Amino acid sequence: MKVCFVLPPETHSIESSIPKRLEGGKGIYPKLGILSVAAYAEKTAGIDAKLLDCPALGLDYPALGRTLASDPPDLVAISTLTFNLIDTFKVIRTVKENSPTSLICVGGQHVNLYPEETLRLEGVDFVVAGEGERSFAQLVQALEAKASDDQLAAIPGLGFKRNGAVRLNATLDKVPDLDALPFPARHLIDMGQYSHLIGKGKRFATLQSSRGCPAACLFCDIRLTKFRQRSPESVVAEIRMLAEQGFDDFFFVDDTITINRKRLRTICQTLAKEGPKIHFKISARVDTVDPELLADLKAAGCYRIHFGVESATPRLLEYMEKGVMPERIEKAFQDTRAAGIGTYAYMMIGIPSETEEEMYRSTDFAVSLKAEYAQFSVCTPYPKTALYQRMMQDGIVPEDYWLDFAKNPREDFRMRFYNPDFDEEDLRKIQDECHRRFYGRAEIVAREALKLRSWADLKAKAKIGANILLKRINR
Q: What are the residue ranges in the chain where pLDDT is below 50?
């Protein structure tokens, strides 16, 4: 079966809690989720696979249509988030217009949240909710075998239409043994088209060594999920394979790779002792690092840790169920700095009941932590998160507007920042000022000038810097 995987063009993304003008230039990452689904389907279902990453390839809708028309696939698989649902719908129309015999299957995080609503959208033949590797491969095998509806209904997370009605299997698949999955199908893409702005090495790749996070952060869509991990041997083998291809700069996209410190120390000790010599960065909670782990990370090549800090105010940290206080945050940053590893602080402003003074206190806190970089997001109730549910219960969010959008995607939809004390314009102004206060310091400007690696690097950083500072001037 000929299967074409598609990542939609980015023409109508819903603006996130970070303005697009500040996100621009940060780079384009390979999407490991869809690459993993493709790899498993190639291995177990024998598909003839193609992957069109439209943002990386620079494909607009006419170009996508011509590509599909020139080589019509049997099945088009689209990965979607709520934020690019409009673009996903445009891809579906493009497929139907240029390759009308192709079936369409939609997966991704939006489908996990709204499987029935997605399946009911015009043009969608199938959805796969949950972790898609095994379920999608089973769908391909079932289609080739002309399986009955009852057989289709037995596939975890699969939804399909029959005679105008939708059938949805509510059981979702979670892969118990991540080592059983093949490495992502990077051979389907040109890895040279991907990059990130604040890296260290020459060639960049992403890795995922675990899934899930047992923490309870109120705003997170993977809150309290089971942590599953690949073995150290599997992770090191993938790193070595990529290093042989010339990759030396890695970003582990794990939600919290440091949950199992013993496993991570084994990975790091193996790399430090046996190689290859690489550079990499990770994401972590401040309460999951200690000096011993940090020393091993540094020895293995870790150059930056991204920490979720959120706020300097204890009552707001309690509201967001972070499970840590400012003192623990300070210690993690001190220990990381002492180990010779850089830091990135994710901050949040506009938390319900937060004052403007407290928002700027968080900015000062990020400075005092001596973080290399900081990102100030506006507190946003994302779909089906515990924060969204709590804000609806408290009357701050008056209606389930994300559900309405999932049922009826429309181009005039805008994400809302619900806050009883500040409107969106006020929050955006404060957000701009937080970034200006952090990045407008002379030492930051001088440091980034010394780190420039290329003319493209200079242009990207200059663009972001101008957006931060000019927004302040033009206000």
A: 24-25, 455, 458-459, 461-466, 468-475
Structure confidence at residue 195 (pLDDT): 80
Q: Are 52 and 76 in contact (CB under 8 A)?
A: no
Euclidean distance between CA atoms 205 and 207, whole angstroms = 7
Question: For the CA atoms of the chain, what is the radius of gyration?
Answer: 23
Alpha carbon distance 169, 235 (integer Å): 33
Q: Strand, coil or helix: what is 210?
A: strand
Q: What is the DSSP string of 371-395?
A: -SEEEEEEP---TT-HHHHHHHHTT
Q: What DSSP assignment string belongs to 146-195?
A: T--HHHHTTSTTEEEEETTEEEE--PPB--S-GGGSPPP-GGGS-GGG-E
Percentage helix, strand, coil for the chain under 3-state DSSP, each rounded to 5: 45, 15, 35
Q: In 103-150, where do the E strands start and end?
A: 103-107, 126-128
| Domains observed in the chain | 2-168 (3.40.50.2300), 198-380+417-439 (3.80.30.20)
CA distance 132 to 37: 6
Counting Cβ atoms within 10 Å, is residue 208 exposed (0-12), middle (13-18) or buried (19+)?
A: buried
Q: What are the DSSP calls for 314-356, one per residue?
A: HHHHHHTT----HHHHHHHHHHHHHTT-EEEEEEEE--TT--H
Picking from 326, 329, 331, 330, the residue whose alpha carbon sits closest to that of residue 312 is: 326
Which residues are 284's β-sheet partners? 307
Q: How many residues does the chain have?
A: 475
Q: pTM above 0.90?
A: yes
| Cα–Cα dist 67/80, whole Å | 20
| Helix (H/G/I), strand (E/B), else coil: 49 | strand
Q: Is the peptide bond before 276 cis (omega within 30 degrees of 0)?
A: yes
Give the strand order in the sheet containing 48-53: 48-53, 2-7, 75-79, 103-107, 126-128, 158-162, 165-168
Supply the pLDDT for residue 170: 85
What does the pLDDT look like over 173-186, one tens digit per residue?
999 999 999 999 99
Give ∠ CA 112-115-116 in degrees, rounded to 5. Answer: 160
Q: How far apart are CA 76 and CA 212, in angstroms?
A: 28
Strand partners, 28: 195
pLDDT at 307: 98
pLDDT tens digits, 17-67: 666 555 544 578 999 999 999 999 999 999 999 999 999 999 999 999 999
Q: What is the pLDDT of residue 18?
A: 65
